[in-house]
Structures are given as structure tokens and as C-alpha cells.
């Protein structure tokens, strides 16, 4: 007999298959979408495997025990987290390169508008900076935020390895095992929440114009954190059910709706957003200047034109 949760898992699998097919078509010109596709495929397989496990009872505890959200999806979340970090790293690298080019552009504009004395002072400063770099000050090719994200990804991977070891070597029917799993998933949630703050404050600081790329990074980080909140909540609820043999007033339908709202909807939204984002390896390129930067560029151009008009006027006076 097909239960309500079986029907919901069939619907989830169908949605994941459709999204993975569409993403696979886009992956031909956007290879960095591959982690999202693998995540969708593995999640589909997980649902099909759980559908094959039949129980005689339809209690909430047994439904939770069969749930891929508790058993498999937290492990597969490494692919989703790595894909989001990958997008952020590409964005950080391109933004850093863009800022360096603008700084060089401003320096050229300033140099063209300086008189001989000021040019000599600027040349001395540049020579002093070059000597400092040659003495041992190695210029970093990537900003600190890039390496912070890499370290976060390594830590997330270590937690996933620990979670896999718990699943393989401990009896998951024991409350102590479910407690360890809940703690591991909570640690993953903590990293996801830190990543949201990091994206808003460091990767995309408030001074940067919110374009489509920036909104994609912000939206996906929030949605991923929401889905991890749902996974952690389910892990703790299931641990409590095993220990106390209580269902916390959950019905089968209530459990299905809870999973759908707090885990599946954000997860599907992340995959759907990947359908509308441009090529991931172009994220952060050609970022438009901020309002303050635009004012500075206008000031420097006006200063340059003013200098040119003054020089032309002096030349005409000397000829006259």
C-alpha cells in the first residue's frame, strides 16, 4: 500500500529529475553547475532507495526513520555547500580583479592631471612601494576572504566525513547514535549560518551595488541555511522520539508538510535559481562602480579636463 509519504517522495523525485535534466542541458556551457546536478541525482536515488523500504506501520517515528532528510541529504549537502562556496570564490576573485583595474585606472587619471612636482612625488612613492615588495612583502594574488571560504569548506568536509563514519560504524537505532548525528548536523548548520553573515558582510559588502550576481549569492546562502535549519530540527526531533517514544503531536501529514516547507522548498529553490543565473565562471565580472566610485571618477575626469583647458589657455596666451 502506498502511503502519503511515498506519494510525496515520488513527487520530490520527479521534481529533482526534471531540475537535474534542465541543469544538465545548461551544464554544456556552464560546467560549474555539475555539483548541483550530482546533488539532485543523489537525492533522487536516496528517495527511490527509501521507497523500497516497506514497513507494516505508518507511525510518525517510522516515517522519520525512513526520511532521506535525516539519513542521506545532510551528507549530500556537502555537494550543495561546495557548489555555493565555488560560486562565492569565483565572485570574490573577479571582484578583486575589477577593483585592482579600477585602482589602476584612477592612478592613470590622477597621473595625467598632475604637474611635474606631483609626478615626481608619485614616482618616489611607487619606487618605495616596489622596494618594500622586493624586500619580502609578497603580494597576495587572492584576498583573505577567498582563503576563509576555502577553510570553511574544508571544515564542512571534515564534519561530513565524521557523519559518514557515524552512519557506517554505529548502530543508528540507538539514541546515542542519533544524538551524535544531530550534533554533527547542528555543526553543519552553524557553518551555513556563518556563511550567510560572511556573504552579506564580506563577500558582498554593503557598499557594493546589488546586481543579479550578488542577489544570487545572497539568496542561495539564505535558502541553504533554511534547509539546514530544517535538517537539524528533524534530527533533534527524531532523537527525542527515540528517547521518549513521543511524537510531539506530529501526524504523518504534519511531518510531511514540515519536511516540505523547511527543507524541500528551499532546496528546490536553490536548484531553480541556478536555471536563471548566468555562467558561474562569469560571476562578479564587469561589476558596475558604486555611487562613491562613480563620483570619484567624474571628479578626476573633470580635473583632467580643467588642467587641459588651463594648459591650452596658457599656450594661446604665450603665442599671442
What coarse outline follows from CA principal-axis ratios?
A: elongated
Question: Low-confidence segments, ≥5 residues, pLDDT <50?
Answer: 133-140
| Rg, Cα atoms, Å | 27 Å
Mean pLDDT: 78
The biggest sheet, with number of strands, parallel, antiparallel or mixed sense and barrel status, is: none
Estimated share of beta-strand residues:
under 5%
Helix count equals 11
Number of strands: 0
Helical proportion, percent range = over 70%
Structural class designation:
mainly alpha
- Element order: H for helix, E for strand: HHHHHHHHHHH
Q: Distance between the terminal alpha carbons, to the nearest Å? A: 103 Å
Task: Please describe the structure with a list of short key phrases separated by commas or semicolons.
single chain, 320 residues, mainly alpha, 79% helix, elongated
Describe this entry's structure for a reader:
With 320 residues, the chain is mainly α. It is 79% helix and 0% strand. It contains eleven helices and no strands. The protein has helices at residues 4-27, 34-52, 60-66, 68-71, 73-112, 116-134, 144-169, 175-203, 212-244, 252-273, 291-319. Helix 1 (4-27) runs antiparallel to helix 2 and helix 5 (73-112) packs parallel to helix 11 (291-319). The longest helix has 40 residues, at 73-112. It is elongated and about 90 Å long. The relative contact order is 0.14.
How is the topology of this model organized?
Layout: H1 4-27, H2 34-52, H3 60-66, H4 68-71, H5 73-112, H6 116-134, H7 144-169, H8 175-203, H9 212-244, H10 252-273, H11 291-319
Helix pairs in contact: 1-2, 1-10, 2-5, 5-7, 5-8, 5-9, 5-11, 7-8, 8-9, 9-10
Amino acid at each position: 500500500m502506498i502511503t502519503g509519504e511515498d506519494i510525496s517522495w515520488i513527487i520530490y523525485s520527479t521534481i529533482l529529475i526534471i531540475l537535474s535534466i534542465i541543469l544538465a542541458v545548461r551544464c554544456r556551457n556552464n560546467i560549474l553547475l555539475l555539483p548541483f546536478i550530482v546533488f539532485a541525482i543523489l537525492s533522487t536515488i536516496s528517495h527511490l532507495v527509501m521507497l523500497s523500504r516497506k514497513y507494516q506501520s505508518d507511525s510518525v517515528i517510522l516515517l522519520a526513520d525512513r526520511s532521506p532528510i535525516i539519513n542521506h541529504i545532510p551528507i549530500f549537502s556537502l555537494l550543495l555547500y561546495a557548489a555555493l562556496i565555488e560560486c562565492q570564490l569565483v565572485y570574490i576573485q573577479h571582484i578583486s580583479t575589477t577593483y585592482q583595474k579600477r585602482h589602476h585606472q584612477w592612478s592613470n587619471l590622477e597621473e595625467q592631471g598632475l604637474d611635474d612636482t606631483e609626478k615626481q612625488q608619485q614616482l618616489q612613492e611607487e619606487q618605495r612601494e616596489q622596494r618594500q615588495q622586493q624586500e619580502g612583502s609578497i603580494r597576495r594574488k587572492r584576498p583573505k576572504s577567498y582563503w576563509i571560504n576555502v577553510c570553511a569548506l574544508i571544515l564542512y568536509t571534515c564534519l561530513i566525513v565524521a557523519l559518514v563514519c557515524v552512519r557506517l560504524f554505529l548502530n543508528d537505532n540507538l539514541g546515542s547514535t542519533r544524538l551524535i548525528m544531530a550534533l554533527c548536523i547542528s555543526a553543519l548548520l552553524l557553518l551555513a549560518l556563518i556563511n550567510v553573515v560572511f556573504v552579506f558582510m564580506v563577500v558582498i559588502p554593503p557598499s557594493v551595488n546589488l546586481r543579479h550576481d550578488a542577489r544570487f549569492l545572497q539568496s542561495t546562502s539564505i535558502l541553504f541555511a533554511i534547509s539546514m535549519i530544517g535538517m537539524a530540527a528533524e534530527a533533534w526531533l527524531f532523537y527525542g522520539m527515540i528517547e521518549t517514544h513521543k511524537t510531539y503531536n506530529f501526524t504523518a501529514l504534519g511531518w510531511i508538510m514540515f519536511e516540505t516547507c523547511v527543507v524541500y522548498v528551499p532546496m528546490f529553490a536553490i536548484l531553480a535559481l541556478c536555471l536563471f543565473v548566468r555562467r558561474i565562471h562569469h560571476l562578479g565580472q564587469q561589476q558596475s562602480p558604486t555611487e562613491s566610485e562613480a563620483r570619484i571618477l567624474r571628479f578626476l575626469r573633470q580635473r583632467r579636463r580643467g588642467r587641459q583647458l588651463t594648459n591650452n589657455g596658457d599656450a594661446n596666451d604665450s603665442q599671442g
